[in-house]
């Protein structure tokens, strides 16, 4: 059973400062070396400005366009501007459907900690933050910089946060062996997704 948006999704969840971005920066090259086409979706609570007032794209966005696609031979950048809508956090699903799934084998998600998707927790005991896996049944592995005495009473894999190759191997194994429910969980879970996209 494969979803019509057919790219598996796995998240990297953890509290701010746990090292999610640094870990992904090290894991992605291993996945690319294995031949995978990798998409990345990063959630931020901060306002972002990816270009400067000197750039044409900036001038055209601030002229009032609601969407702008900047296309070059090397990359495309798509901007969505929400001028007239109340400020709210984007949902995981609405971000996923903006990606070109035909060019991807896997999507890695950084953030969206509270959304329903299969996740690897990035956990540093020394930070004194709560363990997410104790409350989140969708966490399938914990990457930690210290050995963990115990994990939640279910099958959760323990990974070495300082070994990006090991974590990349886990992601590849998950991609090859996980159930469709685990791989496509955001699509199965989202009500909008269920009505707008059929399960084949």
Automatic annotation (TrEMBL):
SUPFAM superfamilies found in the cross-reference section: P-loop containing nucleoside triphosphate hydrolases
Domain Molybdopterin-guanine dinucleotide biosynthesis protein B (MobB): 9-145
Any matching Pfam family: MobB
Superkingdom in the source lineage: Bacteria
InterPro entries (alphabetical): MGD_biosynthesis_adapter, MobB_dom, P-loop_NTPase
PANTHER family (UniProt xref): MOLYBDOPTERIN-GUANINE DINUCLEOTIDE BIOSYNTHESIS ADAPTER PROTEIN, MOLYBDOPTERIN-GUANINE DINUCLEOTIDE BIOSYNTHESIS ADAPTER PROTEIN-RELATED
NCBIfam families per the UniProt record, alphabetical: mobB
Protein name: Molybdopterin-guanine dinucleotide biosynthesis protein B
């Amino acid at each position: 059973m494969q979803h019509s948006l057919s790219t598996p999704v796995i998240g990297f969840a953890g509290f701010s400062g746990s090292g999610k971005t640094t870990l992904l920066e090290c894991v992605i090259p291993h996945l690319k070396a294995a031949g995978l086409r990798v998409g990345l979706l990063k959630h931020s609570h901060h306002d972002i400005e990816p270009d400067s007032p000197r750039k044409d794209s900036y001038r055209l966005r601030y002229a009032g366009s609601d969407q702008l696609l900047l296309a070059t031979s090397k990359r495309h950048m798509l901007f969505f501007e929400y001028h007239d809508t109340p400020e709210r956090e984007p949902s995981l699903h609405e971000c996923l459907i903006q990606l070109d799934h035909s060019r991807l084998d896997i999507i890695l998600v950084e953030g969206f900690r509270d959304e329903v998707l299969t996740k690897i927790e990035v956990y540093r005991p020394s930070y004194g933050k709560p363990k997410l896996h104790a409350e989140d049944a969708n966490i399938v592995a914990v990457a930690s910089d210290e050995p963990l005495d115990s994990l939640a009473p279910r099958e959760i894999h323990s990974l070495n946060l300082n070994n990006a190759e090991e974590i990349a191997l886990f992601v590849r194994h998950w991609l090859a062996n996980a159930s469709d429910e685990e791989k496509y969980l955001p699509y199965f879970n989202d009500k909008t997704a269920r009505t707008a996209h059929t399960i084949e």
